[in-house]
Design goal:
Blueprint (H helix, E strand, L loop, with lengths): L2 E4 L11 H5 L3 H10 L3 H17 L4 E6 L4 E6 L9 E5 L4 E5 L21 E5 L8 H13 L11 E7 L11
Parallel strand pairs: 1-7, 2-7
Antiparallel strand pairs: 2-3, 3-4, 4-5, 5-6
Length: 174
């Protein structure tokens, strides 16, 4: 069971759009964020979130409905800086981001993309790509290197961290 709660907004920052969002549970808010996407992308996002949640017991699921994408981080606690993985939902695809030690991961299949100094990602064309042995191996390495690590006995929690008032369209242009 996932414990759900809303992070208290910091003064001076906008974390929610409108008063209607304040009355929804975190799960309902996440569902609303996902519903903005096409049915195919929404189904893929839901399947990937469920798969990641089941693979990462004890993680906090940190949700950011940002300008560019819907980002769902998986961390050992509430601190975004401790997130190990993130799913980024875009209008046409979902990417799995490796946020910690990505440059130290052994990637003989050359799956990790990106040129930044910290983060790498893999575009997931289908949810079952998470079951590919090279991706499972990368995730296992990332979990082994994570500091702080996930505590599997910690209850999982869903936390809405922020929602941007201004966003790019969530559905591709025709």
């Amino acid at each position: 069971m996932i414990a759900c709660r809303m992070r208290q907004p910091d003064k001076g920052k906008r974390h929610e759009r409108g008063s209607a969002m304040k009355n929804l549970t975190p799960q309902h808010q996440l569902d609303g964020f996902i519903d903005k996407f096409t049915p195919d992308i929404a189904a893929q996002a839901r399947a990937l979130i469920a798969a990641m949640s089941s693979r990462l017991p004890g993680s906090s699921v940190l949700v950011y409905d940002n300008y560019n994408a819907l980002a769902i981080g998986f961390a050992p606690g509430e601190r975004t800086s401790d997130a190990i993985f993130s799913l980024a939902v875009f209008p046409r695809w979902v990417s799995l981001f490796f946020l910690k030690n990505a440059l130290a991961l052994e990637d003989p299949a050359d799956l990790l993309k990106g040129s930044g100094s910290v983060v790498r990602h893999i575009v997931l064309k289908t949810p079952d790509m998470l079951d590919l042995p090279p991706i499972k191996k990368l995730m296992k390495q990332a979990l082994r290197l994570a500091d702080p690590p996930l505590d599997p006995v910690q209850p999982m929690q869903l936390i809405i961290k922020s929602s941007s008032a201004k966003q790019r369209p969530r559905r591709p242009a025709c």
